[in-house]
Task: inverse folding
């Protein structure tokens, strides 16, 4: 969707056009839900809950969208905040048992696929255990393959700070992987 279409849809959504809001969400729902899955450690149930809550908040507050960023960036921030609220309010943490519904979409031999799926589950679990700012940058840069400048804008920090945070996040994740290296062999 080009920015002109997005701006027109946002204006219609702000005016109360439910279909325009729906079209905005549909244009980026794959990327947005993937982000929710990543920060929730691959837990589909939690990701769906966070995602739905974020969409409801976005719909209710569409009039507050100022257009200073893209619509998807705005919802991305709402998803992130919904996840932070979820963690702080419920005290819940993602465990390996919670990851049973994680899906890996890849056409590879069954045994190798299961091994990769287990490793992906463990890696997502470890990422979800990082402090939220670290989880966020790893998810955006390494899992979502977002450009540094776009991720910095989304998070609302300077690009250089993002690079520092990413370096520290990768070091922390590397340490966690080292502590669980037997699982990855």
Result:
């Amino acid at each position: 969707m080009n920015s002109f279409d997005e701006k027109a849809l946002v204006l219609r959504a702000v005016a109360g056009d439910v279909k325009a809001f729906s079209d905005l969400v549909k244009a980026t729902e794959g990327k947005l839900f993937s982000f929710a899955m990543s920060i929730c450690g691959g837990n589909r149930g939690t990701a769906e809950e966070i995602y739905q809550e974020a969409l409801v908040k976005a719909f209710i507050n569409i009039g507050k969208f100022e257009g200073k960023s893209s619509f998807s960036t705005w919802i991305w921030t709402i998803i992130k905040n919904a996840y932070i609220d979820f963690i702080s309010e419920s005290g819940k943490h993602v465990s390996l048992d919670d990851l049973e519904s994680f899906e890996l979409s890849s056409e590879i031999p069954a045994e190798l696929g299961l091994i990769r799926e287990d490793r992906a589950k463990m890696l997502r679990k470890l990422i979800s255990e990082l402090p939220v700012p670290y989880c966020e940058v790893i998810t955006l840069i390494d899992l979502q393959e977002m450009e540094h400048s776009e991720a910095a804008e989304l998070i609302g920090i300077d690009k250089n700070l993002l690079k520092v945070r990413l370096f520290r996040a990768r070091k922390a994740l590397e340490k966690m992987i080292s502590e669980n290296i037997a699982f990855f062999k």
Summary: Residues 175 and 181 are 10 Å apart (CA to CA). The first helix runs from residue 3 to 14. DSSP finds nine helices and no strands in the chain.
